[in-house]
Every structure is written in C-alpha cells, then in structure tokens.
Design goal:
CATH class of the largest domain: Alpha Beta
Largest sheet: 7 strands, mixed
Number of strands: 23
Radius of gyration: 25 Å
Helix content: 25-40%
Shape: globular
Number of helices: 16
Strand content: 15-25%
CATH topology of the largest domain: Aldehyde Dehydrogenase, Chain A, domain 1
Structural class: alpha/beta
Distance between the termini: 97 Å
Length: about 525
C-alpha cells in the first residue's frame, strides 16, 4: 500500500533536542522483603522503543524463584501480622506508600516513559494519579465491613464477615505498569491479603522501584513480593500453585483465558481485566467540537495501546462524511514523537512485535475493503517504533477492523441508521469493556447506555475515571471489578457465623426420660 498521497498533511515526527541521558536501572527479584538474584543468574534487557538504547535489566525468574515468593507470601499470611492488623493500621501504611510515590514522581515517570515509549508528560500524570488510588484504598481498609442479621428470631444472631482471601498473584501488563498495579495491589493489601506481583518483562522498572517505597512504609517482609521474567516460567506457577488463593490478571483475552483455565483446575478465585473493542456512538445533535476532540484523544491516547481505547466510532449515516473529514484533519494535527519532547502527545509503539501486529490489522482491513484516509504506516527514517495516527473508513461491522482489538493508534469509522442499529453494532463483538454516547438528547443517551453491553458507559465524555467507580467488563472483556468499594471486596471471602442465644431446647432425637 502506497502512503505517499494518503499521509499528506501529517505533522513531522517530533525529535528531542538532544539524546537522553539514561542511567540504566538494574532490577533484582524482591522476595521476603529482600533483593535477590534469580536462581539461574539470568537477566533480561529492556531497550527504549523510542531511542533503541538500554534502559534497564532485570532478573529472569525461574519457577523455583516463583515458588520461593509464593512460600514467603503464604508464610506472611498464615503467620505474619498483616492480615490481623486493624484496618486503621493498614490504612496508615497505604497512606505512607502514597506519600512515597509523591516524593518519587519524576524518577518513576522517567523510567516508565523510557520503557514503554509513552510521553514523559503522560507518564508523570499517571504516576501522580496513582497517589489517589493508594489513598482511596487506604479509606477502604477502614470501612470495608460485613453484615449482621437480627431478624432470625430471638434465639439467633447472624453475622457475615469479610476476611482476606489469602495469597494473591497479581499479573500486570506493559501499557500502564504502575497505574494498573495501583488498581490491584493497594486494594489487596487493604483487605489484608499478601501478594506476589509479576510485571511485564517490557516494563518492570516502576514495579520494582515501588518496592523500595513499600519497604520504607513498613510493609512486613513477605507481604509483597515481585518476580520478574517471561510469562510462562513466572505466570504459570502462580496460576497452578495450591498456595495461591486468587489470581488477578490484566492483559489480553487470549492469555487471560489460558490463565483462567489453569486457575480453575485448582478452584482458584480469578479476577480478569481483558481486551476491548470500545465504541463511541455519535448522533447528529452532539456537541461537535467536544466529540471530535474526545474521539481523537480516545483512540490516540497511549498510542492506542489501551484496553479502553475508543478504537471504533459508530457515527450516524447523515453525518458520516462530515465526521470522517473532521477526524482526519484532527488526526493530522496530533503531535507524535520522542517521548521526552515536551509537546509529544503520542510516543513510540512498545515493541517491534506490537508494531508488526498493528500493521497486519491495517493490512487486513484494507484487504477487506476499508480505506486508509490518513496514516497507515510507520514514520519512515525514525530511529524508534513510531506509527502514524490512522483512520479507516468504509469499515463494515463484519470486518476484523470493526471486531478485533488492534491495540494501536487506528480508528475505524462505521455508519449506523438509528439508535437501535447502533446498539446492535456496538454489541456485535466478543468484548464489552466500555462505550460512549454523544447526544444532547438524554432519552437517546439513556437508551444507548442501557442497551450497550459494557462495564462502563461514558455520556458526552470519554476515558474519565475515578477511584470510587468500579471498572471491568462484560463478556470476553473480563471477570470481576477493580476500583470502587467492590475492589477490596473482590479480595475477600465471606464467612457466615450463626450465633445461638440461650438454651437450645429443640432436639432432633428426643432425650430418654
């Protein structure tokens, strides 16, 4: 596919004024409160996808290292003080971690930007946002409670307790390393659980750096452990170990399904936050400028490497051409380039493999009849993995471009006839993570919000989020919820206590006289 005429008008790639000075971070495993090398001595190197330079190295854990971390977490849960602490005491520790993050925002953000390829300004905002997640989790440590039933008769009192589920394996992805960890770890700790964290081998830096903060805040040894390395040697033991009571995973639907199968064979509790093919549904009476800006933000934020990416827009057929023209012009204005450049809004794709996967999706769309209106290719001559912001038109609901998660800066535009037709198209995928509706008519908005199968519906906005509101998906987008009061509840089990009061006079077998 030739891009010479298609790409006319794209902004040139932003280039930083000087090469970055990178202090390579060398990470170890964090087990039972101490740093240690992998048993094999193996290491993993991570190079910046934007610059090609070495950013960090990590210990490559083997299964025996994972089992050591599991044993540490199991011992800390069964014998250690953490599950037995008052909620107020756990809350104080979580608040201390939040302050530790605040004191290290710039350091954490730089490593996250260099490892992931995302703009430094974005990484700094995300790291700062994690502070709020830890503070909110601290509030839940003090307020999570069970129920009482005083309606069972004068001789019975019912108590329903919430107790920590036990040892939790947390597997996090590469696209929002510290943010997604902060959607899991503080809530598990607030419940009284102990944890083993497996970050992506592409972006392990901020997870390991957080452990210095965790230790300084007073988290007891063994309560939080981190094992770095490749997926199978680390993730599979977490899913299969009988000492791990729960598995929480964020990542692709394919890997999540496999891990869920392994975990279910051990009857392990599972929480999964998986993929999405999230629609923004646009009606003619919307706030036009706000909608266009939100659409471009929704698909190009984090280079589209986001489970919540608004990667398909369903637009009413009466405004489809006007919309396509407007979104193409706005896409051309998106500043793409070096993550360390202060004006960059979109950085590098996380890896060469991810770049090839995205380009393959675009090629499949074109082969099926879609048209590339802008973008569709790499930035030629760039030293890093930079992809042009892309808009596909002529997309129909049965095409893979309308149904499959692309996980890149690629927008598919699909026309619809009326609200019911839009709902049918929106629901015609395997996913159900999030959606948005744009209209000034509240009846239209509510009809769509109620009709679309998704865990989050935005009305006249997109990609807003708050710690108080639960997040998760329907169908192949996952199981369970993160954030909100439900987040801590997910890391608990309920226990029923039936307390008899006074003499128990009834007898199943009468006593002999």
């Amino acid at each position: 596919m030739s891009t010479a005429s298609i790409n006319t008008g794209l902004r040139p790639l932003l280039v930083a004024s000087s090469a970055p000075r990178i202090d390579v971070y060398h990470g170890q495993l964090f087990i039972e409160g101490e740093w240690r090398a992998a048993s094999s001595g193996g290491r993993i190197e991570r190079r910046s996808p934007a610059h090609g330079t070495l950013v960090s190295t990590y210990a490559a854990a083997a299964p025996e290292d994972v089992h050591a971390a599991i044993d540490a977490a199991h011992h800390a849960f069964r014998k250690g003080p953490w599950p037995k602490l008052k909620g107020a005491e756990r809350a104080r520790v979580l608040l201390a971690i939040a302050e530790g993050i605040r004191e290290n925002v710039d350091r954490l953000a730089l490593v996250e930007s260099l490892e992931s390829g995302k703009p430094l300004t974005q990484a700094r905002a995300e790291v700062s946002g994690c502070i709020d997640l830890w503070q909110y989790a601290a509030s839940l440590a003090r307020t999570t409670s069970g129920d009482t039933y005083d309606t069972l008769g004068e001789d019975m009192l019912g108590l329903v307790l919430r107790q920590p589920v036990g040892v939790v394996g947390l597997i996090t992805p590469w696209n929002f390393p510290l943010w997604i960890l902060s959607q899991k770890l503080p809530f598990a700790l607030a419940a009284g659980c102990t944890c083993i964290v497996k970050p992506s081998e592409l972006t392990s830096g901020t997870t390991l750096m957080l452990m210095d903060i965790v230790k300084a805040a007073g988290v007891p040894a063994g309560v939080v452990n981190v094992v770095t390395g490749l997926g199978a040697p680390v993730g599979q033991p977490l899913a299969e170990s009988p000492l791990v009571d729960m598995l929480s995973f964020t990542g692709s639907t394919r890997v999540g399904s496999m891990l869920a199968g392994l975990a279910s064979s051990k009857l392990k509790k599972v929480s999964l936050e998986l993929g999405g093919k999230n629609p923004q549904i646009v009606f003619p009476d919307c706030d036009w400028d706000a909608m266009i800006d939100a659409v471009v933000f929704g698909v190009y934020f984090n280079a589209g490497e986001c489970c919540n990416s608004g990667s398909r827009v369903l637009v009413h057929e009466s405004i489809a051409e006007r919309f396509a023209d407007a979104v193409v012009e706005r896409a051309k204005a998106v500043p793409v380039g070096d993550p360390l450049h202060p004006d960059a809004k979109v950085g590098a794709i996380v890896s060469e493999q991810q770049m090839r996967d995205i380009l393959a999706h675009i090629e499949h769309g074109v082969a099926a009849g879609a048209q590339v209106r802008v973008g569709g290719a790499r930035y030629e001559g760039a030293s890093g993995t930079y992809l042009q912001p892309t808009v596909l038109t002529g997309v129909t609901p049965e095409m893979s471009a309308a149904r499959d998660e692309i996980f890149g800066p690629v927008l598919s535009v699909i026309p619809f006839r009326d609200a019911q037709h839009a709902i049918e198209i929106a629901n015609d995928t395997a996913y159900g993570l999030s959606a948005a509706v744009w209209s000034r008519d509240i009846d239209t908005c509510l009809k769509v919000a109620r009709g679309v199968d998704a865990g989050t519906i935005w009305v006249n906005t997109f990609l807003d989020g708050y710690p108080e509101l639960p997040f998760g998906g329907f169908k192949a987008s996952g199981v369970g919820r993160e954030l909100g009061k439900q987040a801590v509840e997910d890391y608990t089990e309920t226990k029923t206590i039936q307390l008899h009061i006074g003499e128990r006079n009834s007898r199943w077998v009468p006593l002999k006289q």
